[in-house]
Amino acid sequence: MLTTPDFMSKKIVIAFPKNGDKISFKNDNLVILDCSNKIKLQMSCYKIFAVFIVGGFSVTTGIIEKSKKFGFSIIFLTTTFKVYETINFKMEGNTLLRRKQYSTEISTEIGKQIIINKMENQRDTIKQIRDINNTEGIIIINENIKKLIKNSFNTYEIMGIEGIAAKVYFNRIFKEFDWHGRQPRVKRDKINLLLDIGYTILFNYIEAILNVYGFDIYKGNLHQEFYKRKSLVCDLIEPFRPIVDYKIRKSFNLGCFNNYEFFVDKGQYSLNWKYNSDFLQIMLEEIMLYRKCIFEYIQSYYRWFMKSDNIDNFPKARLNKNDIN
Residue 43: which of 59, 27, 20, 56 has the closest Cα? Predict the structure, then answer.
């Protein structure tokens, strides 16, 4: 099983075939060449956790063989950051874990704990803004956290309370901007577009970690089973969404996206593919700053699920950067 020190030594590799990038292997090293066949990156396969390939790419048996041998995942994205295929490294045959997933009778309570955790992290993210006018929002979120802790709710009621807190949260974190509310996948403005892309990157990172343990990622708790929906990933991404939210807010305030070129078609925003590599790099670098707390949360979730059904011991995800204990 992957340990924390081993995981912390792993890296993410990004390739952009549309920019002329080519992937090859030399001995046990992955090599990325530019359009002039000059080496852009060379890395030992032992150090790779995942490879993100953005744009059209012809898969060879060589890269699949290396993925299986060295245990790294490959995520294929379109130039608009839609995932169209994944080759995930998976632990095979963890039947005891999957049996527990299928038989648990406390899925709703697990989902409630995940949402409480998410709301706590949203509250703490608002506190980072240090605006006295946000005090009311923090109070409202705390009241909804207490409501969840003290009472029993079904899944729909939990999601309703989460929705109230989310509206308060987003209205505070993006209040300096022309913000009209969070609308997943609608892409009605630049922020919603970049949030969707950032969440997609985080989603696939978390999926790759879950596969290390052999979870059935289609069997969730809060998010119920739906055709081809990776419900468990949808669950466990929730406490970490503020990582993406705050980074996008901060980047807008620092003018990092001022030179980005956006297009609008039928009311939906899209990003010029020329800026894909820059944005992907920004988001992955931010996620990697939190990779220890992400990994240890999923590791703790696995251990809790295998050894206990006591909801009082359910793990918490705290958004600590790698250099913070």
Answer: 27
Distances in Å between the Cα of 227 and the Cα atoms of 199, 224, 252, 275, 315 are: 20, 10, 36, 33, 28
CA distance 251 to 255: 6
Residues 51 and 101 in one domain: no
The CA R_g of the chain, rounded to the nearest whole Å, is 20
What span, in angstroms and rounded, lies between the C-alpha atoms of 24 and 41?
Answer: 11
Q: Say if CB 45 and CB 66 are below 8 A apart.
A: yes
Q: Which of 42, 67, 87 is the last residue of a domain?
A: 87
Provide the greatest CA pair distance for the chain.
Answer: 63
CA distance 130 to 145: 21
* Phi and psi angles of residue 269, each rounded to the nearest 5 degrees, phi first: -85, 150
CATH of the domain at 243: 1.20.120.920
Name the token pair of 208: 């790759």
Give me the domain span that covers residue 25: 4-87
Using CA atoms, how far apart are residues 54 and 15, in angstroms rounded to an integer?
A: 6
Mean pLDDT of 52-62: 83
Tens digit of each residue's pLDDT (9 = 90 or more) over 216-274: 999 999 888 777 789 999 999 999 999 999 999 999 999 999 999 999 988 899 998 88
Strand partners, 24: 31
User: CB neighbours of 264 closer than 8 A, spacing ≥ 6?
Assistant: 270
Indicate whether 81 and 101 sit together in one domain. Answer: no
